[in-house]
């Protein structure tokens, strides 16, 4: 693994977290825009890495987990049962969500922090197991694909949503390392947490996400696995950018 990067290739303006406005332009050249798919278990650092890569390349960013969290939040606030698949799918289809400058809004209300609660995470994992909900969110996710490119993070970006992604990364870390990262994040925010409870909940979520029938968490056959245990954020971002650079150079070479 190389050291901390000194230079990020082709740095451009930061577009991470502003996908809605740009999603509209996806209608004009969706197939042309390259996708970097970053999948992996909860708290493996996908969001941080995906945003770092998007920023370095000037690409758009899709946090697909946020969509499932938004469906869970919308359902919970409307007291819709998290087992009512038809009602949840309707909720997913009519979801009034927007992403602006790193902030997330539901029906115009800022919910950036609210969707990060453990309750919302658990609810998201439950609604995400329902095939109708997943189907309802598919086109919306694909709509984020727009030039100059997209970095998408989730569980099924490389397997289901963007099977033709230019680069697929399966980001892992030991359950202990992931629980430790989450613990530190919560502490930094002044939220009381218990590391043993966090570890248990992470394992439960991994189990639910991997065991479900529809779009389970799994490494795509053509994904590159990256174990981030013991690596810094900069090292992981660097590795993804390096893979991207190699693939892009190869594609350019074969087009000559
Ligand atoms: O990534 P995040 O923890 O925000 O995702 C919340 C939940 O949404 C996950 O536990 C998973 O069940 C679900 N999810 C999914 N497919 C995705 C992204 C998230 O099933 N592409």
Descriptive terms for the model:
single chain; 8 strands; binds cytidine-5'-monophosphate; Rossmann fold; alpha/beta; 256 residues
Radius of gyration: 18 Å
Q: Quick one: CATH superfamily?
A: P-loop containing nucleotide triphosphate hydrolases
Strand content: 5-15%
Give the SSE order as H and E letters: HEHEHHEEEHHEHEHHEH
Oligomer status = single chain
How many alpha or pi helices? 10
Would you state the CATH class?
A: Alpha Beta
Count of domains:
1
Mean pLDDT comes to: 87
Could you tell me the CATH topology label.
Rossmann fold
Structure characterization notes:
By secondary structure, the protein is of the alpha/beta class. It has one domain: P-loop containing nucleotide triphosphate hydrolases (Rossmann fold, 3-Layer(aba) Sandwich), CATH 3.40.50.300. Helices cover 47% and strands 13% of the residues. Strands 2-6-1-7-8 form a five-stranded parallel sheet. A hairpin with a 2-residue loop joins strand 3 and strand 4. Helix 2 (46-57) crosses helix 10 (233-255) and helix 4 (85-93) runs parallel beside helix 6 (131-142). The protein is globular and about 55 Å long. The model is unreliable at 1-30 (pLDDT under 50).
Brief overview, please?
The protein is of the alpha/beta class and 256 residues long.
């Amino acid at each position: 693994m190389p050291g901390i990067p000194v230079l990020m290739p082709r740095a451009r303006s930061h577009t991470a977290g502003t996908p809605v406005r740009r999603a509209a332009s996806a209608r004009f050249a969706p197939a042309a825009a390259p996708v970097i798919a970053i999948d992996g278990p909860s708290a493996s650092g996908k969001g941080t890495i995906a945003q770092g890569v998007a920023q370095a390349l000037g690409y758009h960013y899709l946090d697909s987990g946020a969509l499932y969290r938004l469906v869970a939040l919308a359902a919970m606030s409307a007291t819709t049962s998290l087992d009512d698949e038809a009602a949840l799918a309707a909720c997913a289809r009519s979801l009034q969500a927007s992403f602006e400058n790193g902030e997330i809004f539901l029906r115009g209300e800022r919910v950036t922090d609210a969707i990060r609660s453990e309750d919302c995470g658990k609810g998201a994992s439950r609604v995400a197991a329902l095939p109708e909900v997943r189907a309802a969110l598919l086109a919306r996710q694909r709509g984020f694909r727009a030039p100059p490119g997209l970095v998408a993070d989730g569980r099924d970006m490389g397997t289901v949503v963007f099977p033709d992604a230019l680069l697929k990364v399966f980001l892992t870390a030991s359950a202990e390392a992931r629980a430790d990262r989450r613990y530190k994040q919560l502490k930094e925010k002044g939220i009381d947490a218990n590391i043993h409870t966090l570890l248990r909940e992470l394992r439960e979520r991994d189990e639910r996400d991997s065991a479900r029938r529809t779009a389970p968490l799994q490494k795509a056959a053509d994904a590159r696995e990256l174990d981030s245990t013991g690596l810094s954020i900069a090292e992981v971002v660097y590795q993804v950018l390096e893979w991207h650079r190699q693939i892009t150079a190869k594609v350019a070479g074969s087009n000559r």
